[in-house]
């Protein structure tokens, strides 16, 4: 398939296009990179304190385990503050990481956000920890300027279309058909069909069922209008031949994209490129790749994906902006991973991009009623009756935290 432009972006071209991030991105040559504004107020703010708090939300996960969160708060010499609230695994794993982050941040001007990110990235700070710091810095910059983060990047749109996933092993094909109808009736703008998967303990790998999967894909499509967007998504376990066979059915069924059908290690990139060239349905990958934006440049350069995936947990909003610039230059789209409690940074990026770059936002529930997570004062974003998610309009990332709750439920 040839959804992308004829240009191929290598690492050097990308770096030239993207500039050196944050305050120096005005040197970029295209789209999002060229629109970033210099935040003048940040020149007078220097970072004076970095605080990490792991706390218990009181919620329980699917297996009954306690759900913990990590709040990071960054304060400047003038008392301005910005923060991030993310999964507990974003907290520094040891004192050495805490000291590394503090050594880089303390005393630095907020306007050197880009240099801070690059230094932490090159020091090898875990991407999840870097993501928490980066989110807090963006939040701080927005609060200093009194604007939402997307306004710092150049606001383009106030809403985004939503899609909802079925989850794997939903049931017989009829259950997938029923779920697709529910999504359409609830106003959700697209459905992501995740079919069948099981784990082989002896082989220590997931096992796929392509024939059953095709029945689920067909049932979902036949349940809704032919113009209702359906997305296929998997966990990277098909062989090439299986992926091709399923993909040809998706071509016939007019699916919007085909996500992560095969393993996503480097040795599979050429097979992804071959698959993309054989199918009309756009290939969306990689999801399982744990690297940040740089690890995805080879996927773009080799034509291994028509839609490139990343999430804020893989290096922060800054990493997502870098990949957005690369995708924009290459003429391909993006899908953002990891919604739920981490929705706000993703929505800020969406607000500063065209629909053609990021057409959909993943929601985790068909329920439209707002809820407030323990540790927060701001309700989680919810889509409207027409299936659109609003982009936050309050300063920073748009999330207010309940610091009293966080302090009284502190674990570390």
According to CATH, the homologous superfamily of the largest domain is Enolase-like C-terminal domain
- Assembly type of the chains comes to single chain
Mean pLDDT: 89
Percentage of β-strand residues: 15-25%
C-alpha Rg, in Å? Answer: 21 Å
Tally of helical segments: 14
Overall CATH class of the largest domain:
Alpha Beta
What percent of residues adopt helix (DSSP H or I)? 25-40%
Give the end-to-end Cα distance, rounded to a whole number of Å.
Answer: 50 Å
- What structural category characterises the helix and strand content? alpha/beta
- Number of beta-strand segments: 14
Note the main sheet. 9 strands, mixed
Q: Do you know the CATH architecture of the largest domain?
A: Alpha-Beta Barrel
Number of domains: 2
N-to-C order of helices and strands = HHEEEHHHHEHEEEHEHEHEHEHEHEEH
As for the CATH topology of the largest domain, it is TIM Barrel
Overall body shape: globular
Which regions are unreliable across 5 or more consecutive residues at pLDDT < 50?
2-30, 35-39
